[in-house]
Amino acid sequence: MSEPSNQVKGWCPGALRPMRSGDGLIVRVRLTGGELAPERAAALAEAARRFGNSLIDLTSRANLQMRGVRDETLQPLLDRLAELGLLDASAAAEQVRNVIASPLAGLDPSAPVDVQPLIRALELRLIGNDRFHSLPAKFGFLLDGGGVLSLDGVEADIALRAEDDAHFRLEAGGEALGRVRVEEALEAALSVAERFLALRQPDERRMRDVVGRIPLPSPGGIGTSKRKCLGSTRSVGVGWEAEGVEVPTPPRPSADPPPPGEGKDQSRLAGPHAAGFFTAAAPFGRLDAHQLEGLAGVAARHGATLRLTPWRSILLAPLAVDVTPEVSSLGLVVDPGDPRLAIAACPGSPSCLSGEAPAQADAGRLAPVLAGFVERGASVHVSGCAKGCARRTPASITLVGQGGRYGIAFDADSKAPSETEPMSLGELTAFLAKRLAEKSFKSSEQR
């Protein structure tokens, strides 16, 4: 195994290729479909306690990563993961298993397509073809069966999104390529991955970098037209020259976006659900060994399994009872109105070598004053540095660590210039409280 490093741009840590951070090695455990049986969850909690610093991060790929692993405890941890059946045969096989799937796969009768059989099948195809091992580290696939917890809004390089009980919509880099029958879906998705590998330049790491060079079909059908590329025609959808893929019809104009808190955004989901599952949300995507062990116990007592989600939460399903008191006692979020669910925060210092401020700890301290903004639909990003690892899109309020203080920008991402001089936590709290009282939330209102 190569020496762990944090110098590779775009690198996602794994178990066989961990990443060094400020609090030790980060070891990511990739879970098939985010599924975690209670006994495995309890074993991972014990491993985090024995071989790391007990802290566990939930990722946007529905995996978990242990923090604070030491050089001398890394091999014992890997041995334990192997015993649990959670260690891949190689670092290359581990890296290519970037598949996000519906959290309730196999458990949701309302889903048009049960993607559970496809999840492992896709992983095995990716592992078994060395060609796919050259896909960039963050290149990922998505299998959305629809239903109660659809993955609308969750991005992936190549996505299969159920439209009915017989077809998926095939997407690449966010562009619709067409409709594909369920039985041909994996072949179509892997064909797109092959095309990416054929077209990409060395500095192109994501499907969005290449999708504009995928040819369009003629109106008469796939494969009958002179090849042309995306450009002004992007709005009518992208065709894919593969058997079994139907040309999409031009999309209808989208309706007005739903008000904050409505629609298909599941990031604010917490507590019991009428469909028979419970969401335990971890503040800022972090929990500790005690909390994971406690969730495993709750699930075991009620005959449920654990499912990790791309919204950095854990589902307990199927579940016929309300376990709010049990989960709440663990210190996890069970209220969908908790403002921490609308705040993206990276670990920050000292956990991260790049961090210039303790982002997660400070986000927790700022949550009471930020709650007023969140209630009005604002999104918040607290970043320990300008890299913005916790959120790559703009937020209503963005705080960026600068030498132990925070700059602030509105309707911007973490790389935007600060609109104020860096402030201490106390100064920032007073500044935000004043703006809230004045109902002054936008950058234009600060000048």
Automatic annotation (TrEMBL):
Q: Which gene encodes it?
A: cobG
Q: Where is the composition biased (Pro residues)?
A: 248-261
Q: Where is the Nitrite/sulphite reductase 4Fe-4S domain?
A: 94-174
Q: What is its EC number?
A: 1.14.13.83
Identify the keywords attached in UniProt to this record, alphabetized: 4Fe-4S, Heme, Iron, Iron-sulfur, Metal-binding, Oxidoreductase
The record's listing under NCBIfam families reads: CobG
GO MF, one example: precorrin-3B synthase activity
**The organism's place on the tree of life at top rank:** Bacteria
Q: Does the keyword 4Fe-4S apply?
A: yes
What Gene3D superfamilies does the record tag this protein with? 3.90.480.20, Sulfite Reductase Hemoprotein, domain 1
Under the heading InterPro entries, the entry gives:
Cbl_synth_CobG-like (IPR012798), NIR_SIR_4Fe-4S (IPR051329), NiRdtase/SiRdtase_haem-b_fer (IPR005117), Nit/Sulf_reduc_fer-like_dom_sf (IPR036136), NO2/SO3_Rdtase_4Fe4S_dom (IPR006067), NO2/SO3_Rdtase_4Fe4S_sf (IPR045854)
Name this protein carries in UniProt: Precorrin-3B synthase
Region Disordered: what ranges? 240-270
Q: Which residues form the Nitrite/Sulfite reductase ferredoxin-like domain?
A: 17-83, 278-327
